Amino acid sequence: MVRADNPNAQIAAKLRALYVSVQEEAIPDRFLDLLDKLDAVERMSLPDTAK
Known about the structure:
By secondary structure, the chain is mainly alpha-helical. The protein has helices at residues 7-24, 29-45. The longest helix is centred in the N-terminal third of the chain and has 18 residues, at 7-24. The chain starts with 6 loop residues before the first helix and ends in a 6-residue tail after the last helix.
């Protein structure tokens, strides 16, 4: 329980709630596609011995 007279505790509780809600969100497909493309570019830029 957050004390109403403690603004720091109120801020901390709201930040925790925001963080939890962001953690539970799905990763957008566009972002996953971008990550796949970046991985592909990195793999292509590696020397053949490092692949």
